[in-house]
Specification:
Elements lengths: L6 E5 L4 H11 L8 E6 L2 H12 L7 H10 E5 L5 H8 L4 E4 L6 H6 L1 H22 L5 E7 L8 H19 L4 E7 L1 E2 L6 H10 L4 E3 L5 E5 L1 H14 L5 E4 L3 E3 H9 L6 E3 L11 E3 L1 H4 L2 E4 L2 E4 L21 E2 L7 H10 L17
Parallel strand pairs: 1-2, 1-4, 2-3, 4-5, 5-6, 6-10, 7-9, 8-12
Antiparallel strand pairs: 9-11, 10-15, 13-16, 14-15
Helix pairs in contact: 1-9, 4-6, 6-7, 8-10, 10-12
């Protein structure tokens, strides 16, 4: 029960991942916290989130509603502002840094803004703990597959965030800094699925970058599970990676379109995109171990490896989205498993397999 009687700070707590994580925490599955602080700079999203809990119809789970009333606190602030971060971190036992600029094209056009949020924001958390000796027990940095062998600004800044948090363990031995790295989250605001669904509802066309482009896919709850697992099990400086499946963008589009008379249009690769994503690089594979449904990338800094017997490396090569791609039937099954098929889309998607 890692959250029992703890104060949890979630930066970017109104985002897709942050808001789901907060709801799961309020459900008490990992212990009922003393307080959950949602820290973000968007007052409208905070208001919407607060109202969703205040209306009992939205908070149908009695436990979630009761915990919202007793433990949830909203704070307006920006991870870019050191003083505001200090004010929030001061009260926390556990920090989950979900604040990010995560749209790949946006970061390409405004790289300075991506640096401020994704890198300086992470550094502000570390500085707050280090300079004020705040008794924070653990910090989790939320990263992305795009941080592995990055070719775009978003991935580059997230890769730096990982290094900032991993190295923070050296000068802050009382705080455990770990990271999680995962791919596209199904139906999140950063996912292609809401775009495809909107295009289908408006009659198309559904725009594909490159049909055989592949992406790792996992649900928002699997992303939260990865954070919870890292908090329970990850050692200082480790990065947890879910062993997620992947699919082509063409098969994702086909399953969502089903037998609807909606056309597709190939528009080409967007600025900063990769054809295939990588969760674990060749260079990381030799110090990556398997732990259940996850890979743990061990830190490169020797001071963080300790004297415990070493675990055997599990991967022989990079972990790429091109390695084990779901076929059309597998893609349909995955989307159906996560309740995106077929109820949420027009037409009978199962017809696409006939």
């Amino acid at each position: 029960m890692i959250f029992k009687d703890k104060t949890l700070l979630v930066t970017g707590g109104t985002g897709s991942m942050g808001s789901t994580l907060v709801r799961r925490v309020l459900g008490g599955e990992m212990g009922v916290p003393r307080k959950v602080i949602v820290f973000s700079r968007d007052e409208a999203k905070q208001h919407d989130m607060r109202m969703s809990y205040q209306h009992r119809g939205a908070a149908t789970d009695e436990v979630i509603f009761r915990n919202f009333m007793n433990v949830l606190e909203f704070r307006i602030g920006d991870v870019r502002n050191h003083a505001e971060v200090c004010s929030a971190v001061r009260d926390a036992d556990i920090v989950i840094n979900a604040a990010a600029l995560k749209q790949v094209p946006t970061c390409e056009y405004f790289p300075g803004q991506a640096v401020l949020t994704n890198c300086v924001g992470a550094l502000n958390i570390v500085r707050a703990i280090e300079e004020h000796s705040y008794p924070v027990e653990a910090v989790v940095g939320i990263s992305t597959d795009k941080a592995c062998k990055p070719v775009n600004v978003m991935g580059m800044t997230k890769s730096l965030q990982e290094r900032i948090f991993v190295s923070a363990n050296i000068l802050n031995p009382k705080t455990r800094f770990v990271c999680v790295r995962y791919g596209n989250v199904l139906a999140s605001r950063g996912s292609v699925i809401p775009l495809f669904l909107d295009q289908i509802r408006h009659g198309g066309p559904v725009t594909l970058t490159v049909p055989h482009m592949t992406r790792f896919l996992l649900s928002i709850n699997q992303a939260v599970d990865t954070v919870f697992c890292a908090l329970r099990e990850a050692k200082r400086g480790e990065t947890y990676v879910p062993r997620a499946p992947s699919a082509t963008v063409e098969n994702i589009a086909k399953t969502l379109i089903g037998n609807s008379k909606v056309a597709t249009k190939i528009i080409g690769i967007r600025p900063g995109e990769k054809m295939h994503e990588i969760m674990v690089s060749d260079e990381e594979a030799h110090h990556c171990v398997r732990r259940g449904d996850y890979y743990a990338i061990l830190p490169m800094l020797p001071e963080l490896l300790g004297d415990a017997p070493g675990e055997s490396a599990d991967l022989k090569k990079e972990f790429s989205s091109a390695d084990t791609v779901l076929d059309l039937a597998g893609t349909l099954a995955l989307l159906r498993q996560h309740k995106l098929m077929p109820e949420d889309v027009p037409g009978d998607a199962a017809q696409v397999l006939r």
